[in-house]
Design brief:
The chain has 197 residues and is mainly alpha-helical. It has one domain: Fumarate Reductase Cytochrome B subunit (Up-down Bundle). 61% of the residues lie in helices and 3% in strands. The protein contains 5 helices and 2 strands. The chain has a two-stranded antiparallel sheet with strand order 1-2. Strand 1 and strand 2 form a beta hairpin. Helix 1 packs antiparallel against helix 2, helix 2 crosses helix 3 and helix 3 runs antiparallel to helix 4. The longest helix is centred in the C-terminal third of the chain and has 34 residues. The relative contact order is 0.17. It binds protoporphyrin IX containing FE (2 copies). One protoporphyrin IX containing FE binds next to helix 1, helix 3, helix 4 and helix 5.
Length: 197
Amino acid sequence: MPPLRNTPRSFGLVSVLLHWVTAFAVLGLFACGFWMVDLSYYDPLYTVLPQWHEVVGLALVAVTALRLIWRGASQQPLAAANESRSQRALATSAHIFLLLGLVVVMASGYLISTAGNAEIDVFGWFAVPPLIDAIDNQEDIAGYWHWLSAWALIALVAAHTAAALWHQYARRDNTLGRMIVPGSTLTPDTPKKENSV
Ligand code: HEM
Ligand code: HEM
């Protein structure tokens, strides 16, 4: 059984699963978002895709809430020994902006779907109620922020992915491997004392 919790040198199964579920959901929602807004009224997916987009997006709200709680309650694995302070600070701010970007995309998506006091229907099982209905032009304003924050998030994800691949294949320090295999460590396994992921 792989370790569930993070240690000072490795990610545990819970952090790894939460990371990759989020990554695939974000990429899927981004593609689905652009695809669905260009569909014609007569396309069979015209109503299906937006509903899936909303439901998967809401599931991601729950996953992100869990993730933030887990991150707050866990220790973060230590940085690679060969990394400078400024590189580490850049990576840490990128991680914080990724989480912040996620929150803005999800909140604005929720505000588009609940504009005009509408509920979000989850396949007829239950409905998510509107919480705010006090913004004029809520659908347009939230739509603009949703579009903008989705692009900003994807740009950040591209830089984050490039950094992960560079660490893994140019520096060969197993940064990516550590986020894939729970319990695995960096190579060489000599982390700095600072605690900042
Ligand atoms: C698509 C959305 C993504 C988001 C929102 C995201 C977010 C994050 C965050 C917040 C962390 C910090 C650790 C944590 O809190 O779990 C992290 C770590 C990491 N991510 Fe991502 N990530 C995404 C996609 C990716 C992709 C596509 C890759 C690589 C192909 C990747 C590789 C990594 C690696 C290797 C780490 C560990 C970094 C370290 O040890 O310092 N991520 N990610
Ligand atoms: C990380 C999560 C999400 C990503 C990456 C994402 C991405 C996108 C993208 C790229 C678009 C197309 C934007 C455009 O061209 O105007 C879109 C549209 C939309 N999204 Fe999301 N979305 C996410 C979460 C959500 C959530 C949680 C909801 C609602 C509960 C939602 C509701 C909508 C709606 C209603 C539209 C259609 C907007 C319109 O017709 O202009 N999204 N999304």
